[in-house]
Specification:
The protein is α/β, with parallel strands linked by helices. The protein has one domain: Alpha/Beta hydrolase fold, catalytic domain (Rossmann fold). Helices cover 37% and strands 14% of the residues. Strands 2-1-3-4-5-6 form a six-stranded parallel sheet, with helices on both faces. Helix 2 crosses helix 3.
C-alpha cells in the first residue's frame, strides 16, 4: 500500500493529542497518524471542557471536515474515543462527506450496551472518583501523587466521564463502513456487550482481543498499528 492515508485518532477520557505518540512512531510511512484534540487540554487548554458527547463530536467534526477530502482516511478511537469515532462517522455520512475507509475501535462496548450506565463515576466524591480512576489504570501514579496535576486533570476527567455516562443511544441505520473492534482480555465488559457493535455496521466486524486491562493499547502499539495497516491495505484494494 503506497497510497498516503490519514488516520485520525480520538483520545480516551482524560487523553490528549500526545496519547498516540507511540502510534505515530510505529506507523508505516504511508499512514499519517493525526491525533485530534479535545478542548481543555494541551494546545486547547484555554477552552472549556465539553461534558456532552454529541457536542464533543461536533467539536471534533469541525477539526476534520475540511481535511477529509485530502486523502483517503480512517478513524481510530479508544474508550470514549471509540464512541466518538462512531458518532463522528455518523455525522460525516449525514453531511454527505466522504466516509472513512475503516473505523477502528478499542476498549469499549457497543453504544447500545445498557452496562454503560451501571456505574456513574462523574458524580462521585473526590476520593471515590480518584480510586475509580486508579482502578481503571486511568491515572498514572505520578499524577495521583501530585496535587497540582490532580487539580488540573480531575475536572477534565469528570467532564469526559459525564459525556460518556449521559450518552443516550439513538437507534439508526448501521454504518456502511468496515469496522474492527479490539478489547483487552481483562476489561470489565462482557463479550455480549462488545459484540453489540455488530448492530452498527453493515459489514461483518472483526472482533479481536489482546491480553491486558483497559489500557492494553499502551502495551501493543506496534501490534495494533500492524492490524490497522493490514486492514487498510485490504480496504484500499477494493476502492
Amino acid at each position: 500500500m503506497n497510497k498516503t492515508l490519514n488516520l485520525f485518532c480520538l483520545p480516551f477520557a482524560g487523553g490528549h493529542k500526545y496519547s498516540y505518540r507511540d502510534y505515530q512512531e510505529n506507523a508505516p510511512a504511508n499512514i499519517k497518524v493525526i491525533p485530534l484534540e479535545y478542548p481543555g487540554r494541551v494546545g486547547r487548554i484555554q477552552e472549556s471542557s465539553i461534558s456532552d458527547i454529541r457536542e464533543l463530536t461536533d467539536y471534533v467534526y469541525q477539526q476534520i471536515a475540511g481535511k477529509i477530502h485530502e486523502h483517503d482516511y480512517a478513524i481510530y478511537g479508544h474508550s470514549m474515543g471509540g464512541l466518538i469515532a462512531y458518532l463522528l462517522t455518523q455525522k460525516i455520512i449525514e453531511n454527505k462527506l466522504k466516509p472513512p475507509v475503516h473505523v477502528f475501535i478499542t476498549g469499549t462496548s457497543g453504544p447500545s450496551a445498557q452496562s454503560r450506565f451501571d456505574v456513574i463515576r462523574h458524580l462521585l466524591p473526590k476520593d471515590e472518583f480518584l480510586k475509580e480512576m486508579k482502578d481503571l489504570d486511568g491515572i498514572p501514579d505520578a499524577i495521583l501523587e501530585n496535587e497540582d496535576l490532580l487539580s488540573y486533570f480531575e475536572p477534565i476527567l469528570r467532564a469526559d466521564f459525564e459525556a460518556c455516562e449521559t450518552y443516550k443511544h439513538i437507534e439508526s441505520a448501521p454504518l456502511d463502513v468496515p469496522m474492527t473492534v479490539i478489547t483487552g482480555t481483562e476489561e470489565d465488559m462482557t463479550l455480549d456487550d462488545i459484540h453489540l457493535w455488530q448492530n452498527e455496521s453493515t459489514y461483518q466486524i472483526d472482533f479481536r482481543q489482546m491480553p491486558g486491562k483497559h489500557f492494553f493499547i499502551f502495551q501493543y502499539p506496534m501490534e495494533i498499528m500492524e492490524i490497522i495497516s493490514q486492514k487498510l491495505t485490504s480496504d484500499l484494494k477494493t476502492i
